[in-house]
Amino acid sequence: MNFANTEFVQSFKTKNDGRVNPLPEVIFIGRSNVGKSSLINALINRKNLAFTSKKPGYTKLLNYFIVDDSFYLVDAPGYGYAKAGKSLGRDFQKMMDDYFSDNKALKQIFLLIDSRRELNEDDVTFLEFVKSKNLPLTVIFTKADKLNQSLRAKTMNMYQKLFSDSQKKAFFTSSLKKENIGMLQKHIEAVIKS
Ligand SMILES: Nc1nc2c(ncn2[C@@H]2O[C@H](COP(=O)(O)OP(=O)(O)OP(=O)(O)O)[C@@H](O)[C@H]2O)c(=O)[nH]1
Ligand SMILES: [Mg+2]
Prior knowledge:
CATH class: Alpha Beta
CATH topology: Rossmann fold
Helix content: 25-40%
Shape: globular
Order of helices and strands: EEHEEHEHEHEH
Distance between the termini: 15 Å
CATH architecture: 3-Layer(aba) Sandwich
Largest sheet: 7 strands, mixed
CATH superfamily: P-loop containing nucleotide triphosphate hydrolases
Strand content: 15-25%
Bound molecules: guanosine-5'-triphosphate, magnesium ion
Strand order of the largest sheet: 1-3-4-2-5-6-7
């Protein structure tokens, strides 16, 4: 699979649902500013095809990118940025409820967690939602360039305690240093084919 052969397709408020060519898809989701758009750019080896920003809450819609004419990478808006302070944010929740209900194209959810931070209430709410719907999940700890080995071990330890039974896959990544990007590409290829 040639990840460099990627183009932006369209932004949607919910899942594709046949508006563009139906293909399998994976989604990148997580708190605002965790590095979703940056990770997509690293995967496809482009500087800013998925727009990134220092300001949280930059991505507002579900942005579909097509990789090598084979599948979609979906860049999601960050959660936890609703000013009203309601858990996850109402608009986000509605978008996601629609997105996840009966989405046959969805092959894997990549939940991104900033490796320097503890899980917050929004992360836990989202994880519970994923568990309750029995959706396929991989956890990605982002910005690993900011962590030394002992902090990585601590993070992994916390993670294993939290989800050891049902969710087994986890990666540390750094979009900045291109760490584990190749491994993640292989993992994506495998879930797309499954
Ligand atoms: N050090 C470091 N910084 C990163 C990494 N990935 C992203 N960042 C920085 O984190 C900030 C947010 O990155 P984005 O990719 O825009 O985050 P996002 O999750 O798409 O944010 P929203 O669209 O607002 O939800 C930017 O300033 C990036 O440069 C990384 O691997 N290492
Ligand atoms: Mg973004």
